[in-house]
Specification:
Number of strands: 8
CATH architecture: 3-Layer(aba) Sandwich
Distance between the termini: 34 Å
Order of helices and strands: EHEHEEHEHEHHEHE
Structural class: alpha/beta
CATH topology: Rossmann fold
Number of helices: 7
Strand content: 15-25%
Shape: globular
Helix content: 25-40%
Number of domains: 1
Largest sheet: 6 strands, parallel
CATH superfamily: P-loop containing nucleotide triphosphate hydrolases
């Protein structure tokens, strides 16, 4: 069976959730799943459950307990709110330690995609990693093109580059219509994290 490239992007909630749902569906069909999370630390509720669901899923994270943002991207109020949880960098100069960590994860992704050892490989938040220049778009495209043709791959995250959208066989844009974040509701365990 041929594998396809799926892209879940957009500003709306639900990209990772959709990828988790697909992973559960694949496991139910007896498929082997690799779920790689970029730019995330093991603080999300799925880390407590997914590895116990089935021996057919491997979940790994390649992130730090902080976010990154380019200088000038955040308004002063947001920057103050996230002061201890964000690293600001000058455009074109992302934190080297983060770049190295993301490259390590991408190396694992490339091996998994080429080997055909997994039926489904999820690259969660890889679009965000490309947006922040932690990995290049050509590098991600190269590993997508070199994958075993039977491997299904999902790329999630906001700001999917146009080249990734063009490479996708299925592209879904989650669009925010209304969100309670605007009313000051923070991420809730089991719902947003």
């Amino acid at each position: 069976m041929k594998g396809y490239i799926q892209v879940y992007t957009g500003d709306g909630k639900g990209k990772t959730t959709a990828a988790i749902g697909l992973a559960i569906r694949a496991l139910g069909a007896g498929k082997k799943v690799l779920f790689l999370q970029f730019m995330k630390d093991q603080i999300y509720s799925e880390h407590k459950l997914l590895p116990a669901v089935s021996p057919g899923i491997t979940l790994k994270t390649f992130g730090k307990p902080f976010f990154v943002a380019r200088a000038g991207e955040m308004d002063p109020a947001t920057r103050e709110k996230w002061a201890k949880k964000v690293v600001i960098f000058e455009p074109g100069q992302p934190p080297a330690e983060y770049v190295e960590l993301i490259r390590k994860g991408l190396g694992e992704a490339e091996e998994a995609l080429r080997s055909g050892s997994y039926d489904l490989v999820v690259l969660d938040e890889i679009n965000v990693a490309m947006h922040y220049e932690l990995v290049s778009v050509p590098e991600v495209l190269r590993i997508l093109q070199s994958r075993d043709e039977k491997v299904e791959v999902v790329l999630t995250g906001r700001n999917a580059p146009p080249e990734i959208i063009a490479a996708g066989d299925l592209v879904t844009e989650m669009r925010e219509v209304k969100h309670y974040y605007t009313q000051g509701v923070l991420a809730r365990p089991g719902i947003e994290n």
